[in-house]
Backbone:
């Protein structure tokens, strides 16, 4: 199951400034009518890139980090895992917006996005090596911080793609296909991991190698341009001040942000601790658990892909987003409640299918809704960075909060943890209901 199959976006055709990067437009400059429709090859390359990118994110968070932590620190594995993922996520929160702004303002002839893909790949490999060799949880944390900075660099290159290169009428569909690539990565995370536990270096470096192959195709396929010459990036303080927007003035975009935060917060409880749930509640070994996660993930993948494509396509066709978000958040909440009571793999699988279907539909439709509600259309990099920050904040805070919830009634209380996540997931339906400029 994917932790956030939406961390998708597509990349640049027009040079558009973002947060902290300001470009002035001279009189008489023709106004762009928006991106042209993209063809099957571009969409395929995008989906493959999302698969590789998500595999580097999901294999550690869904399997390999949890596996390594329980080997190094079995007595306090719940707390140690939350510590590594939570603190690493905080560094990712800081690096993400900064990388997005720097990418928006980069004026290299090679382009403003491509360099950040190359940097991200190099840092991903370094972080994986550190984690694989780590003898302690603290060293693991150092490696994971490097990996989170790498993810920020990669996100800065990939996330603006949907807003900058895909026409409004295709965004739901293309976002769904990108989400499907992420879903496949979620299945592969547990399956690949279960066969690689005998070699820590293969366990952590394999996803980086996969990303390297698909990223090369992406670099050769997707056009890129340097930022306009009059783009200016201020001080670091200016950069972070530039990430601010007035939530009262742009309340619809703020509500999208909060809704994504709520759903991702609840989902992160499940995605972070699903391996330990199978180990502690159902008594499986790590290798058995990894393969069961792959089997359940394979079944769930059908639901996720189907709901993702159906949600994105139908929301485009009917020009309505809200009903699909209501349904999606209800499915995620229902899946978490079912999983909370699971005492067997079949019940766990039912919960996984509901979670997958709901997250698939939510990811494609919410992304399309967000790109239509950007407060400033010429600063897609800034606002898409802010949008994805919602899942970043949730991904950092939820693992830090989870150990306290798990200790209710004597420890290992996954029922309370997952039920709490279900309540939070329903928050997305409430925030969507209050949005005014989307039907």
Residues:
């Amino acid at each position: 199951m994917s932790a956030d199959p939406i961390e998708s976006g597509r990349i640049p055709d027009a040079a558009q400034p973002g947060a902290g990067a300001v470009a002035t437009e001279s009189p008489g400059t023709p106004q762009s009518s928006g991106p042209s429709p993209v063809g099957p090859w571009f969409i395929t390359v995008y989906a493959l890139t999302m698969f590789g990118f998500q595999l580097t994110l999901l294999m550690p968070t869904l399997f390999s980090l949890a596996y390594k932590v329980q080997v190094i620190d079995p007595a306090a594995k719940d707390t140690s895992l939350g510590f590594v993922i939570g603190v690493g996520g905080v560094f990712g929160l800081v690096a993400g917006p900064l990388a997005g702004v720097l990418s928006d303002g980069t004026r290299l002839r090679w382009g403003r996005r491509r360099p950040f893909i190359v940097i991200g790949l190099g840092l991903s490999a370094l972080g994986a090596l550190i984690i694989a060799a780590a003898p302690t949880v603290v060293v693991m944390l150092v490696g994971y911080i490097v990996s989170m900075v790498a993810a920020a660099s990669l996100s800065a290159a990939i996330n603006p793609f949907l807003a900058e290169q895909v026409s409004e009428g295709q965004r739901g569909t293309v976002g769904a296909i990108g989400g499907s690539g992420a879903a496949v990565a979620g299945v592969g995370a547990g399956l690949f991991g279960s066969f690689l536990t005998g070699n820590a270096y293969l366990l952590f470096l394999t996803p980086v190698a996969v990303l390297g192959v698909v990223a090369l195709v992406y670099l050769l396929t997707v056009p890129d341009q340097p930022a306009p010459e009059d783009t200016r990036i201020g001080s670091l303080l200016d950069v972070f001040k530039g990430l601010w927007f007035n939530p009262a003035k742009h309340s619809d975009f703020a509500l999208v942000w909060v809704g994504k935060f709520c759903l991702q917060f609840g989902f992160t409880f499940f995605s972070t601790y699903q391996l330990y749930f199978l180990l502690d509640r159902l008594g499986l070994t790590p290798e058995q658990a990894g393969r069961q996660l792959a089997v359940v993930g394979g079944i769930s993948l059908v639901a996720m892909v189907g709901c993702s494509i159906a949600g994105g396509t139908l929301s485009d066709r009917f020009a309505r987003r809200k009903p699909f978000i209501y349904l999606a958040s209800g499915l995620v909440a229902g899946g978490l409640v079912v999983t909370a009571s699971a005492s067997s793999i079949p019940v766990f699988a039912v919960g996984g299918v509901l979670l997958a279907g709901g997250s698939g539909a939510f990811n494609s439709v919410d992304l399309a809704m967000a790109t239509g509600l950007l407060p400033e259309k010429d600063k897609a990099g800034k606002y898409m960075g802010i949008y994805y920050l919602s899942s970043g904040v949730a991904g950092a805070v939820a693992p830090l909060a989870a150990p306290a919830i798990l200790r209710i009634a004597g420890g290992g209380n996954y029922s309370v943890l997952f039920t709490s996540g279900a309540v939070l997931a329903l928050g997305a339906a409430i925030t969507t209901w209050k949005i005014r400029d989307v039907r």
Summary: Strands lie at 21-22, 232-233. Residues 40-72 form the longest helix (33 residues). Residues 70 and 76 are 8 Å apart (CA to CA). The chain has 15 helices and two strands.
